[in-house]
Amino acid sequence: MDISVFLDPVPEMCFAQTLRPGKKPYIETLTIFRNEEEFPNLDGVQLALVGVKDERAVVDNRGCSDGADYIRKAFYSLFDHHEEMRIIDLGNVKTGKDVNDTYFALNQVLTELFKYHIVPIIIGGGHDMLFPMYQVYEPVGKLINITTVDCMFDIGTDNEPLNSRSYLSYIVMHQPNYLFNYTTIGYQSYYVSASNVDLMKQLYFEAYRLGSVKNIDLTEPLIRNANLMTFDIASVRAADAPGVKNASINGFSGEDACRMARYAGMNFKLSSLGIFEYNPHYDINSRTAFLIAEMIWYFIEGFSLRQNDIPKESIMNDFTRYLVQIDDWEDSLVFLCHKYTGKWWMDLVIKDKEFPKLPPRHYYIPCSKEDYDMAMHKELPDKWWQFYQKLM
Asked: What whole-number distance in Å separates Cα of residue 62 and Cα of residue 95?
């Protein structure tokens, strides 16, 4: 498919470089779609920047459609430490006559990138773009996990149209449904209703309050479980990211955001990333644009360190296996720790009661050393129980 028909070249305003001493900023090393007559070759590309300039389904953040070009301008000025990687900037998805046309165009672009095993980084526009990102996985025919970093749940209300505050309802109701798990990191309780908190529990989705993950290391297993991940930049505190109309006084620090982006890059199964809701009209000295640029930089660094350390039969010798017995629980809990990366997993074994002669199925749940320690103190980790209920 010729996806160039869905894309506009990077505008010239992005090439006004912020000069720093040193060689090879990204503006010199990236492959950039600069004119319509010369669309870049996708062979061998590993990562692709894709901008979105549509805000018609964005709630109360008018101006975020201009964000993508400010982000890439800031990113171009950062230095490339991974020249062995081939990264491409495909410009901006064409804005359709209707927002659904933009969703379709983004879907077509991402579908083609997936065929080339290219991981897209979508920037600009509103969080409603998560819905067409999710739809790209439909032809794959496998259940997927989504992780979002957000200060609230974007569930919406009854009969609310698809927008940046209601997309989760549309994902849940979409048929065929191929969402296995949805995780929200960093929600702030005063921004969400108690009924929505209860709804997340009823759906067996994971939701972690900001205060519970102030130790950012605890977010790594949550991010490691994702096939698709997004950031609402409003989840970062206003002091570090003022470029959102409804910026919050509380939130993650800029350093926290960069560390989570690095974890995302290291996640071997993560196949798309989105960073949304940045509004340059509320920014101060492009502070938020540079933060997002640095998040992309750290995502690239994490990507360069990727290892296939997901448990499977062929590499089980790379793991140390721990058995933990909990009172009143029939089977031992099985934990795996990778000998080289130090990442922990829970091995959830499900036996088929109707066909007991069939071998049990293994589900590997990313976890932390703290989950193992909890089990050693005779407490069943919440993560294990939540996945068990979802599977049963």
From this structure: 15
